[in-house]
Amino acid sequence: MTTTLESTLARRQAPLRTPTALGADARRDIGAGLAALLADSFALYLKTKNFHWHMSGPHFRDYHLMLDEQADQIFALTDPLAERARKLGGSTLRSIGDISRHQRLSDNDAPFVTPGDMLAELREDNLRLVDYMRATHALCDEHGDVATASLLENWIDEAERRAWFLFETGRAS
User: Fold this and answer.
1) Cβ 151 vs Cβ 37: under 8 Å
2) Which of 44, 43, 40, 37 is nearest to 123 (CA)?
3) Of 11, 25, 103, 114, whose CB has the highest number of CB atoms within 10 Å?
4) How far is it, in rounded angstroms, from Cα 72 to Cα 60?
5) Is the CB of residue 29 less than 8 Å from the CB of residue 139?
6) CB-based burial label for 60 (10 Å; 0-12, 13-18, 19+)
7) Is residue 8 over pLDDT 80?
8) Does position 114 have pLDDT exceeding 70, yes or no?
9) pTM of the predicted structure, to 2 decimals
């Protein structure tokens, strides 16, 4: 009985041995970068949905639909981010608490935010996410991880597009 329990515990604590040509330093550094990006993506997704749900004013329909579209785009990158970390032999986020420990983008729990402030805050958050993605891309370049770098390049473009739309939408006539 003890042997079975010890065997089960050993399996649960066994290191991931996903085959990859990247070294231990690359897996550690890039994995940490991906975990932080994943946490930031979940934080930005939830903030975007929050603002989508609480939008008001004369441009409600247009803003509401744009934020829903942007939230879908942000959520769509979460699974590839997590799976890339696993492909590198690392683990990924496991809970809401884990997300909150890793996220760098701030939450917004205010009971009311004006539509203009919502658009501006999301624009800045998307631009910060771009900065974080570029920093992770630099780690990929340093370690020769072209696959992760390639994914990041597309996500950077998407985040820059979201920031552009938020900027243009929030401009005064």
Assistant:
1) no
2) 44
3) 103
4) 18
5) yes
6) exposed
7) no
8) yes
9) 0.90
- The CA distances from residue 143 to 24, 30, 153, in Å, are 10, 9, 16
Question: And the tokens for 99?
Answer: 């997300």
Q: Which residue has the tokens 């997704």?
A: 45
Strand ranges (E), the chain: none
Dihedral, CA atoms, 38, 18, 11, 95, nearest 10 degrees? 10
Q: What is the DSSP letter of 14?
A: P
Contact 155, 131 (CB under 8 A): no
> What percentage of the chain carries pLDDT values higher than 70?
92
